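testing teh design pipeline on a random one, pls ignore if ur not involved
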């Protein structure tokens, strides 16, 4: 489902296989397990060292969102959907609190919850020869969760760009997304996207930032997202 590799101070989390990387409980658990390993290894590193996480994927999809087919086959669609949403909220909260910069190397389509997974990273690099960013809920007649909107508002500064993303279900290429300030850069192929992410990661490591401080600042920047996630978690326990 996913692998975690460490190259010096770079952690590389890869969603494996030539599939759509649908975010079902199994994949989300695997991602969260990898993030916990990253956090644990970072905690045992010397205080003078810094790290970076890069998340990428094999095949033509970065992630095509929640595994709706799995939810339908479970016999309890609402319960299954709530489970996937709860697990993604937990993954996103872990990414926001991770004590290091994070980079999404989007090497294929990122749709709906897969789009949210990419937006949960500090930097987004994307291939321009194939793939698009697509908040598909309007087209498939689903209401976008409020916490998705909170993250979109935090990460996409332009109201016009946000409207295009959530209220027109636009399919944006990497170049479109660069122009709208949604991603940081566009690259000619999947390999070049990953290589650019590695270079950026190395540049960030050289800054020598304290990971704990970095993570605490990010938590304050995205406090609204964490608050919204916390509200939903509290309601679900009542």
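output:
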């Amino acid at each position: 489902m996913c692998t975690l590799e460490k190259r010096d101070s770079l952690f590389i989390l890869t969603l494996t296989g030539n599939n759509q990387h649908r975010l079902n409980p199994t994949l989300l658990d695997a991602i969260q397990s990898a993030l916990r390993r990253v956090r644990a290894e970072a905690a045992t590193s010397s205080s003078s060292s810094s790290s970076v996480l890069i998340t990428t994927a094999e095949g033509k999809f970065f992630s095509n969102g929640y595994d709706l087919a799995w939810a339908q086959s479970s016999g309890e669609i609402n319960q299954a959907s709530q489970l996937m949403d709860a697990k993604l909220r937990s993954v996103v909260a872990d990414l926001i609190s991770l004590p290091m910069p994070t980079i999404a190397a989007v090497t294929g389509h990122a749709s709906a919850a897969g789009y949210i997974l990419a937006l949960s990273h500090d930097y987004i690099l994307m291939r321009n020869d194939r793939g698009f960013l697509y908040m598909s809920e309007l087209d498939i007649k689903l209401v976008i969760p409020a916490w998705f909107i909170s993250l979109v508002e935090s990460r996409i500064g332009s109201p016009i760009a946000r409207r295009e993303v959530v209220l027109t279900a636009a399919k944006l290429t990497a170049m479109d997304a660069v122009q709208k300030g949604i991603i940081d850069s566009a690259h000619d192929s999947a390999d070049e996207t990953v290589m650019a992410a590695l270079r950026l990661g190395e540049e960030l490591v050289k800054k020598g930032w304290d990971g704990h401080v970095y993570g605490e600042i990010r938590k304050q920047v995205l406090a609204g997202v964490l608050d919204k996630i916390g509200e939903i978690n509290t309601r679900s326990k009542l």
